[in-house]
Design goal:
- The strands form 2 sheets. Strands 6-5-4-2-7-8 form a 6-stranded mixed sheet, with helices on both faces. Strands 1-3 form a two-stranded antiparallel sheet.
- The protein has one domain.
- The chain is α/β, with parallel strands linked by helices.
- It comes from Sistotremastrum suecicum HHB10207 ss-3.
- This is DDE-1 domain-containing protein.
Length: 205
Amino acid sequence: LGWSPRKATKASKKEPEDWEDICTKAFFRMAYCIDRYKIPAELVFNMDQTNVVYSQGSDMTYAPINSKQVHVIGKEEKRAFTVCVTSSAAGKLLPFQAIYTGTTDRSTPSDKSESYAECISAGHRFIPSRTKTYWTNQHCMQDFIISIIVVEIALIIATKNLNPQTQRALLLLDVFSVHRSQEFLTWMRQKYPNIIIIFVPGNCT
């Protein structure tokens, strides 16, 4: 048949032609804010989101030799949940936020699940998206800020004896539409003006 074992592929996103320039500018924006507002490494946060597939299929199949694009049934399995992972520039891994498709807490892990109590005591969040998808939205981002970022900021301010009225923090996000939305950014400016948001340039993550 002229077939050979092949790995599933898909077209990758292309980085911008001027990626070095725009990434350098983003770096200097961060450096300026950190220096200008004397932000310690413990208050510089980087958050990213990834989907966790419940039943991961194989990415291998048989296809004609030298195939450029290979499709595998089940490769694009969408039954999943989203995990928001955050770390600080000081190297601390913050609690996770897990987002599940559904409108009520019944969509999230049962409180009788193994290690559930341990996860909750560690600060991890299990929340329903309140929509028909598992992607983050305004409700989820506000929960993330209030339950994870603000809690960590308060802890660091108390530990390092900083001024809670004037101390700034910095949050690095990707350019996902919800992160860049006027609704979210306006909410942040109104509720948490001391948290500076900087975006990783598009297609540069």
